[in-house]
Design a protein that fits this description.
2 copies of one chain form a homodimer.
Chain A: H1 3-15, E1 19-23, H2 30-36, H3 40-50, H4 55-58, E2 64-69, H5 81-100, E3 103-108, H6 114-124, E4 130-133, H7 140-151, E5 156-158, H8 159-179, E6 187-191, H9 195-206, E7 211-216, E8 219-220, H10 233-238, H11 248-252, E9 257-260, H12 269-272, E10 280-283, H13 293-298, E11 303-306, H14 321-330, H15 338-350, H16 371-384
Chain lengths: ~375, ~375
């Protein structure tokens, strides 16, 4: 077991989890009690009963996010159930507070039925200013997110899909600045046809990528394929316009950007030589990437990013979700739209001044001071301008 | 508007509600991040996946209580809905933390259907170590509590019913010490046939009271009454053994203890003279009690308690619920039983040493240092001894 894992067990046991709920008001006298509770609280409740919108003025709803899971797809551990998912939800809540002063509560649901999950989240929604879906397996996560977005008047965001996609887009923006290429002119290969790969593909397409191949274990996804999987039908219509057939080797020929959310060591060094000039490699399989960064460099990669903190250019969703919710909550946004997510990516990219951009510095470190504020500002401005 | 109400509005607006969710772990480096989140958190999740009971060892579940309402019976404000109920739930959460270091989360549900409420609470239960029901109207609250107690393996407690009842019992214990009477020999009149009155009656009966009359607006509740309300049928079987008929005036004749959870000024001074020797009056209608304490004293009352902090002997449920949950959580109790509630009442009563008991000091002040620890110890010992 690694050091981090041993320490995580020790600290979780010692502290009894990673979060606590504190009072923001002092209660040290009968007068304090009369303000925090009855009879004072009756005035606050009455004000909201008179004008429901005042719930955002007077309560924690304006800063409170539910981090909701059903425990069906927890990290790489799979369907381990609601209890075992709690440490991840708590970790997320701790990051929300640390990076964007958002108050977040772990809610682990005791069901994996799509409609039941939707119904439970709808029921608890009055208390919360936003819903962060987490570690829910595909394709259920798509339907749950869609139904909640349609019915709730607070922002709903499935971080596993959109968080990483936003940081990838931020990396693409900065990589293209260094490579001096336009987003509308590059060819992108996304390897890995799961929820993350599909979300990344959609994010890049909506940001202006026009030539994109999604590659799954069975090869390049194509709308001509009679055996196409249900989950790939929508994305197949938007990608692979030339109906290319073949595997990853074929896909990366002439590509400008490779994005892997797949499996260890599936990208061969020799294939990089077949890519376009100044090839960009984001190899995010964890902990072992699609290609070792040193090997990718030896193969001719111009820029390399991974999911790991011990290599340059870490693609870490911690850059995105705290600031996105900070911005959405501050703007009282009813949704987290495509435009807000693209703005968040631009915000992350802009956190590195152009004169500091290098091939080893296209994605900011998560501890860059003010990074979540930059993201939040970008998101807030997008809401304000719409 | 009173000072407390104005201040409650001002502070709620300034702070955005009364609670916040904090991280108990420092996150200031990549190493910290690896412990609080991935990859470290995977070890914690794996441990719980292997042994579900470890959720109590490693997560916030062991100290986290959901304060759940549907907004149907909020304070004296009635059915004001889930959003307007949030300030009360937040106040409760603030008190939980202040008085017993319990982490509590307000959950305001967007439905008032009994089965839906039960289903939603069952669904979110994995995250929580206990459920505190709050401000749910009768008789729905009875059914919701019963169904949850039957199906959940964590403690469920409807504070509006049981919290006040426990503090009343504590007051009765100390009042009887001063009056030198036995609980099995006193006649008790409970005025007010709502959820609180029924709960107080049941608590006193289970603690050893044998002669009890419950009085509602229509008079003394009697199992012989052909027009008896559905909600009174169970309690009618346990009370009024002589099938007395009449109103409150008739009921209090010869009574040792009057307990009011009813309406202002319904108890006449002259009636106190018809009570037994050393009559005890708990007049808890708020803010105007069933009889003014000064008038009650003039009428011959031996001990007077109210719900107000500006008179002696305040019957305040803040004495009960924090310590009860502290004890139940520490003991990993699966329920909050009658025995635990009676133990809590004895604990509250014992917080005033016998040589400090006076007619104006039978119920401890909520700010008595260590009061919740005393209650928690009593509850924990009861669990340990069963």
């Amino acid at each position: 077991m690694t050091d981090a894992k041993e320490k995580a067990l020790a600290i979780s046991k010692e502290k009894g989890g990673k979060i606590e709920v504190n009072s923001k008001v002092e209660i040290n006298s009968m007068e304090d009690l009369a303000i925090a509770y009855t009879p004072g609280v009756a005035a606050v409740s009455s004000a909201i009963a008179k004008n429901k919108e005042d719930v955002y003025t007077y309560t924690s709803k304006r800063n409170l996010v539910a981090v909701v899971t059903d425990g069906s797809a927890v990290l790489g551990l799979g369907n381990i159930g609601p209890e075992a998912a709690i440490p991840v939800m708590e970790g997320k809540a701790a990051l929300f507070k640390r990076f964007a002063d958002v108050d977040a509560v772990p809610i682990s649901l005791n069901t994996q039925d799509v409609d039941e999950i939707v119904s439970h989240i709808q029921a608890i929604a009055p208390s919360f200013g936003g819903i962060n879906l987490e570690d829910i397996s595909a394709p259920r996560c798509f339907e749950i997110e869609r139904k909640l977005k349609e019915t709730l008047d607070i922002p709903v965001f499935h971080d596993d899909q959109h968080g990483t996609a936003i940081v990838v887009l931020a990396g693409v923006y900065n990589a293209l600045k260094l490579a001096k290429k336009k987003i509308s002119e590059v060819k992108v290969v996304v390897n890995g046809g799961g929820a993350a790969g599909i979300a990344i593909s959609k994010r890049l397409l909506s940001a202006g990528v026009e030539d994109l191949l999604l590659v799954d274990k069975t090869g390049i996804v194509s709308s001509n394929d009679p055996d196409i999987e249900e989950r790939h039908k929508e994305i197949a219509e938007l990608t692979n316009k030339d109906q290319l057939q073949g595997g990853l080797e074929k896909a990366v020929e002439g590509a400008d950007i490779f994005i892997g959310v797949s499996a260890p060591n599936v990208l061969k060094k020799e294939w990089i030589a077949t890519m376009n000039d100044k090839p960009v490699i984001f190899a995010m399989a964890n902990p072992v990437p699609e290609i070792d960064p040193e090997e990718a460099k030896a193969g001719g990669a111009f820029i390399i990013g991974t999911g790991r903190s011990d290599f340059p250019n870490q693609i870490n969703n911690v850059l995105a979700f705290p600031g996105i919710f900070r911005g959405a909550l501050d703007a009282r946004a009813g949704d987290i739209t495509d435009a807000m997510q693209i703005a968040a990516a631009r915000g992350i990219a802009s956190a590195i001044p152009e004169d500091e951009l290098t091939v080893d510095n296209i994605i900011p470190n998560v501890f860059t001071p003010g990074i979540s504020d930059i993201v939040a500002d970008s998101v807030r401005n997008t809401v304000a301008n719409n």
